[in-house]
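Changelog note: in this version the structure field was regenerated for every chain. One regenerated record is shown below for reference.
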Amino acid sequence: MAKTEQFLKEAFAGESQANRKYLAFAAKADQEGFPQVARLFRAAAEAETVHAHAHLRALNGIHSTKENLAEAVSGETHEFTEMYPEMIEAARAERQKAAERSFDFANSVEKVHARLYQNLLDDIGKTTGSYSYYVCPVCGFTAEKEAPGACPVCGAKGSVFKKID
């Protein structure tokens, strides 16, 4: 792999992580009553997204919707079949309960994501209707069309799910 390609991949990963971290920092600043700090974190997070997308485009990492769905299925499947099981076992062996819970929630939800992506991939080009998704703020479980009464992964109330249009 060429040095520039490796740097683009590293930069994409770093910018993507910074985006997520800054959004978490913004939420904490809001919670602690620092709205101006929260706004700056959100602005910087948006800028990091601009950078990440530019790096991904430079890597030619965005393809047709069908190809993108197939890549998403592959990535999610890798996570729940290979990546998270190993992480869960390590956290369990090291008695890191918070990490084990985090990995376990993610592992369960990645299976759902793979299925949702595969369903859309299978129906690509056909009329599938239009509906919203609902995401659990505790574990990330993603539901189609309506929030469940309670999250099947973590038990959170469906009323706290975030609607995604």
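Spot check on this record: Helices lie at 3-31, 35-58, 65-93, 97-122. The chain has three domains: 3-58, 64-129, 130-165.
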